[in-house]
TrEMBL record, chain A:
InterPro entries membership: 2Fe-2S-bd, 2Fe-2S-bd_dom_sf, 2Fe-2S_ferredoxin-like_sf, 2Fe-2S_ferredoxin-type, 2Fe2S_fd_BS, Beta-grasp_dom_sf, Diverse_Oxidoreductases
Keywords tagged on the record: 2Fe-2S, Iron, Iron-sulfur, Metal-binding, Oxidoreductase
Protein name: (2Fe-2S)-binding protein
Domain called 2Fe-2S ferredoxin-type: residue spans: 4-80
Keyword Iron belongs to the record: yes
Pfam families: Fer2, Fer2_2
Lineage: Bacteria, Pseudomonadati, Pseudomonadota, Alphaproteobacteria, Hyphomicrobiales
């Protein structure tokens, strides 16, 4: 099968590779670029574990054709901390015990980041809406919602 | 159409671990020459906090800072044996094994320190900050690190300990047939408030109030995390989740996880939790285990609340809108019960 050349920005770094037609973004990120922070959950867009940001919007990478991100900026959990310093969302998740098994956590963090980048001071309802496509088995969501609100508060304090 | 409010209650008695004897877990503890300790376990931490709790138990028993203890659950092929992470047994069974191992390791550590300080080991105590000193004479002191170096390079001793916890088999009383199924029990009581739509059969959980008695909460934040998440899972099992079809024909049932129903972040309700601590005599520092029982009282409490709201008794799970609606129709309409 013919390969298609693909270039995009991955966490601020330009990448260029050849992909088979029909390859989804999750496969490109995990298997070709070695960024395993987006998780494979259901492969059907039902769980949100593979959530990444494309030009700042939350997308399900398992349902995104790799070729669709040509020339665009893709952001994953791997790129949100700066050096050894955790992103305020990561700090808030850790402090608030917002993860147990941790499988949903990368997707939750990216969905939450997409929200806070656009709406720095969201209401509780806006947080619930933002993570409503992400399934969590362990936490009961409450600690996650609280952690996102706490991160928003800490961003406000540091702004 | 009317939305009916109802309140239901349930109380449970939950045995910790597998019953009637056996159910062993092993632990090994050793120090390396830097004075840091490793706990080797085959018990699995799947997010419930096994590593954190056994680390605390080991540090407390050894008398060293928690930062100086590392828990390695790497490999069940080569690690000491464990029955597994289930039945709410981790804190109690594995914790007891770690405690036994740490106690033995502490004995060797104190002997080694005694040799260095030229005193009797029974005259020594740990300060919990990484030092060992003569009781009443803190200046006659040696660091755990220096003891570990001396044990390794001068005395030729391993500072290590073995631990196992095994529940003795409970004998059957030949007269009464009575036996002791478990060594300790956790308890919980939960009140659920629901709203039932008599036109659609839909059930919404409005709030939950609960009290959980789980021995000493060795790590209160982890306990809270278990209780919040576990109660949500109970609510999810009561009203949503099933691998079985919802309708008589399996073709209309869920085929994969996309169609498998689970409540999302918008379906949660306020939940007020009280944690009661009645330390278990045979638990590590009194701990029992929150584990599974945090989900258990939610299901009967919700079923009772639905009865209180519309007067129908549903004895099949999950309590789907179809089941509620059929039951309401069968009795000729909603019959709200007295609210207590």
């Amino acid at each position: 099968m013919a390969k298609t050349p693909l270039q995009f920005r991955h966490n601020g770094r330009d990448v260029a590779l050849f992909v088979d037609g029909g390859t989804n973004l999750l496969v490109v990120l995990r298997e070709m670029l070695g960024d395993v922070t987006p998780k494979f959950g259901c492969g059907q867009g039902g769980c949100g574990a593979c959530t990444v940001l494309i030009d700042g919007d939350a997308h399900l990478s398992c349902l995104t054709l790799a070729e669709a991100v040509e020339g665009r900026a893709v952001e994953t959990l791997d790129g949100i901390k700066s050096g050894p310093t955790l992103h305020p969302l990561q700090r808030a998740f850790a402090d608030g015990f917002a993860a147990q098994c941790g499988y949903c956590t990368p997707g939750m963090l990216m969905a939450a980041k997409a929200l806070l980048d656009k709406i720095p001071q969201p209401s509780r309802e806006q947080v619930v809406e933002a993570i409503s496509g992400n399934i969590c088995r362990c936490t009961g969501y409450e600690p996650i919602i609280n952690a996102v609100l706490a991160a928003a508060a800490s961003l406000r304090a540091s702004a | 159409m009317t939305r009916h409010r109802g309140r239901g209650m349930a109380a449970i008695n939950y045995p910790i671990g597998m019953n009637l004897g056996g159910d062993p877990s092993q632990a090994l503890v050793h120090s390396n020459p830097s004075g840091k300790f490793t706990v080797a376990l085959s018990s699995i931490d799947l997010g419930q906090g096994m590593k954190s709790v056994t680390r605390q138990i080991c540090a407390e028993t050894l008398g060293v800072p928690v930062e100086d203890v590392y828990v390695d659950t790497a490999d069940s092929d080569t690690g000491p044996h464990c029955m597994g992470s289930f039945a709410s047994r981790g804190t109690h069974r594995v914790g007891n094994a770690v405690m036994a191992a740490a106690r033995e390791a502490r004995g060797v550590m104190m002997e080694a320190a005694a040799e260095e300080l030229e005193v009797n080991a029974s005259d020594l105590e740990t300060d919990g900050r990484g030092n060992i000193h003569v009781k009443g004479a803190p200046h006659r002191s040696i660091s755990v690190k220096d003891v570990a170096i001396a044990a390794q390079f001068r005395q030729g001793k391993t500072i290590s300990g073995r631990g196992i916890f095994l529940v003795p088999l409970s004998d059957v009383d030949p007269e009464t047939g009575e036996m002791s199924p478990a060594t300790c029990y956790a308890h919980a009581c939960l009140v659920a408030e629901v709203e039932v739509d008599d036109e659609t059969g839909e059930v919404g959980v409005i709030r939950m109030d609960s009290a959980y008695e789980l021995g000493r909460a060795l790590n209160p934040r982890l306990v809270e995390q278990q209780l919040v998440g576990g109660a949500w899972m109970g609510m999810s099992h009561a009203l949503y989740e099933t691998t079985e079809p919802y309708y008589p024909d399996p073709k209309q049932g869920p085929r994969d996880f996309v169609e498998y129903l689970m409540p999302g972040p918008g379906d949660i309700c306020p939940h007020d939790i009280a944690v009661l601590e009645r330390p278990a005599p045979d638990g590590p520092f009194g701990g029992k285990g929150p584990g599974e029982m945090c989900a258990n009282p939610v299901l009967p409490a919700i079923a009772n609340a639905i009865f209180n709201a519309v007067g129908v008794r549903i004895d099949e799970l999950p309590i789907t809108p179809e089941r509620v609606l059929r039951a309401i129709k069968a009795q000729g309409g909603a019959r709200p019960q007295t609210r207590r």
